[in-house]
Q: What sequence folds into this?
């Protein structure tokens, strides 16, 4: 039996840091309010000219180094991103070129904050059905480019960064199952109200910026993260007691606390990194995973539940033996 297993993780955060104190100079907000409502202390911001593909390549190289593989070993690249370098080609094709690879399949997935999880689902199924042996799965975002820095209700929440994993065919079980969901009926609760086929007009109300109903997003995020976690555990005959770690989407500490409570999971078994980099959308889960692998919290053989929620709405999970 062939399985698909994560053999390397990597992440990248841009050098420039914007603290809550820095935000106080840009808008009517304060460090205490932001920490209280979100748990966020700082976010990283891409340099001028630094793109989603640049950050993706940095994260990918670290994941490849950990896995001990070179560019020629890679048979598939999938990038989850809401902030592609260009309308086309895909950011995955640009990443492929920057890594010096030719010929393997490369494409983007757009599922907003669930982008990496949807990409992982696709890569897992590709490996399990013999499509490839080694896949590079990446989440990368330059959300600072679609953030309205005059809007205190959204600007405090987001940051830039990238995370990546190498997923390889293996005799040892890694991924146990993946689950993806969407409900397009609540599109306007969390969206950027501009796009290619509508014709861009940044003077139109809302501009090309993230627009959000914070309270509705909060309620839906907690509910869907809880339901997808229960679906995943029950579907595989596990309970929350069996889990070593929950690695949730890093949007907001209060969402993570509420989701963990719904699952009866003590916070000692939940990975939280949102304080250091804010919400990096599709990059959030692989970033948190890599940080916790490298600081020694997550160890080989442990049972992990990755879960995300984002615009669409989309929600998703993966249960795996690391
Ligand atoms: N600084 C200071 N005050 C603020 C700020 C700010 N940055 N933003 C809003 N306020 C004020 C409001 O104007 C309001 O003032 P009022 O009472 O005088 O009217 C007050 O603070 C309370 O505002 P609420 O919106 O009720 O605050 P709430 O406790 O709901 O927190 C928040 C808002 C943090 C946005 C919350 O709703 C939330 O976390 N939602 C989820 C959003 C999210 O994570 N989105 C990310 C994308 S989706 C995803 O990744 C899951």
A:
């Amino acid at each position: 039996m062939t399985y698909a297993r994560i053999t390397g993780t990597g992440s990248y955060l841009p050098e420039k840091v914007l603290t809550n104190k820095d935000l106080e100079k840009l808008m009517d907000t304060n460090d205490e309010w932001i920490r209280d409502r979100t748990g966020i202390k700082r976010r990283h911001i891409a340099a001028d000219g630094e793109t989603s593909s640049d950050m993706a390549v940095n994260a990918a190289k670290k994941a490849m180094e950990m896995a001990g593989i070179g560019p020629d070993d890679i048979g598939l690249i999938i990038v989850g991103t809401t902030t592609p370098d260009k309308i086309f080609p895909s950011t995955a094709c640009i990443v492929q070129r920057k890594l010096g690879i030719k010929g393997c399949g490369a494409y983007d997935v757009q599922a907003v904050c669930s982008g990496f999880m949807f990409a992982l689902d696709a890569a897992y199924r590709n490996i399990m059905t013999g499509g490839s042996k080694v896949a590079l799965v990446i989440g990368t975002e330059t959300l600072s480019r679609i953030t309205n820095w005059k809007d205190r209700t959204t600007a405090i929440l987001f940051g830039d960064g990238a995370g990546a994993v190498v997923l390889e065919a293996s005799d040892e079980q890694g991924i146990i199952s993946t689950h993806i969901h969407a409900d397009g009926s609540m599109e306007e609760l969390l969206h950027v109200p501009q796009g290619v086929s509508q014709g861009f007009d940044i003077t139109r109300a809302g501009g090309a910026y993230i627009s959000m109903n914070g309270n509705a997003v909060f309620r839906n995020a907690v509910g869907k993260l809880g339901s997808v976690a229960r679906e995943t555990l029950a579907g595989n005959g596990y309970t929350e007691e069996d889990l070593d770690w929950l690695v949730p989407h890093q949007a907001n500490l209060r969402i993570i606390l509420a989701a963990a409570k719904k699952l009866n999971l003590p916070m000692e078994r939940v990975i939280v990194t949102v304080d250091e980099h804010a919400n990096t959308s599709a990059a959030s889960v692989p970033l948190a995973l890599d940080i916790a692998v490298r600081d020694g919290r997550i160890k080989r053989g442990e049972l992990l539940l990755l879960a995300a929620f984002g615009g669409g709405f989309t929600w998703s999970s993966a249960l795996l033996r690391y």
About this structure: The mean pLDDT is 97. Residues 176-321 form a domain with the Peroxisomal Thiolase; Chain A, domain 1 fold (CATH 3.40.47.10). The longest strand covers residues 160-170. The radius of gyration is 18 Å.
